[in-house]
Amino acid sequence: MARQTLSADVYTQLRDLLMSGRMMPGEKLSLRSMAEALGVSVMPVREAVHRLVAEQALEMAANRYIRVPIMTASQFREITSIRINLEGQAAARAAELVSPAALVEIESIHNAFCKEFAKAAPDESSLISLNKQLHFAIYSIADMPILQGIVESLWLRIGPILNYDLRSGSERVVQRVQAGHHEGMVGALRDRDPVAACKSVQNDIQSAADFILETGVLIVSDGKPAL
């Protein structure tokens, strides 16, 4: 029982790292290194990794090394399309159900995001983590656990790609484009406007996706960069 609990804890930590974009596409991972970083033995890490491989959040190559999957442009577009529909629906429902306490929490996360953005050299990891916190704080209000589970599984796949949208020095970060989208999301919740909440989340997702596709960091099926 203790080993199963430890394995579940390791799984949760690795899952959060992926969803928060703290691992890069193509990054190779070592069971031993991960175990040392988490302060556990290799066994629970191996069990957690096998779960993530089954969920296609990680992949195991023929020579047994583990890596974060490299996403193709077509996969990215498909996931983006699904996210736009599901996350927009969750945001709309959240605008109908949001409580004063939940709104205070969301505004706190948004303020921390904007504060980080205001720095001369924003911390990329903090921006990515706060972005994830804000989105899921909103989606949790919708009280749609099945939908949220699907969204979480998509973020397991998409999280590492979000590195490219929130990397320090990009034009979108310099212009604080993401903060503007987030302000629209929070404002719609304040107004309890489901249509505006849905649209603001969808605009946020689509804007980031368009930028990532333009960077050429994704690949097409023949292994060439997607332009």
Architecture overview:
It is built from 10 helices and 3 strands; from the N terminus they run H-E-H-H-E-E-H-H-H-H-H-H-H. Helix 1 (2-19) crosses helix 3, helix 1 crosses helix 7 (145-158) and helix 5 (100-117) runs antiparallel to helix 9 (177-190). The protein has 2 domains: 2-67, Arc Repressor Mutant, subunit A, CATH 1.10.10; 73-215, GntR ligand-binding domain-like (Four Helix Bundle (Hemerythrin (Met), subunit A), Up-down Bundle), CATH 1.20.120. It has helices at residues 2-19, 31-38, 42-54, 73-97, 100-117, 124-141, 145-158, 171-174, 177-190, 194-215, and strands at residues 28-29, 59-60, 66-67. Keywords: DNA-binding, Transcription, Transcription regulation. This is GntR family transcriptional regulator. Residues 4-71 form the HTH gntR-type domain. It holds the Pfam family GntR.
Strand tally: 3
Q: Please count the helical segments.
A: 10
Proportion of strand residues: under 5%
- The CATH topology of the largest domain is given as Four Helix Bundle (Hemerythrin (Met), subunit A)
Low-confidence stretches: none
Specify Rg, calculated over alpha carbons: 18 Å
- Order of strands across the main sheet: 1-3-2
Q: Find the structural class using helix and strand composition.
A: mainly alpha
CATH superfamily of the largest domain: GntR ligand-binding domain-like
Sketch the major β-sheet: 3 strands, antiparallel
Percent helix: 55-70%
CATH architecture classification name of the largest domain: Up-down Bundle
Report the order of strands and helices: HEHHEEHHHHHHH
> What is the mean pLDDT?
88
Look at the structure and give the CATH class of the largest domain.
Answer: Mainly Alpha
Shape: globular
Cα(first) to Cα(last) distance is 49 Å
The tally of structural domains comes to: 2
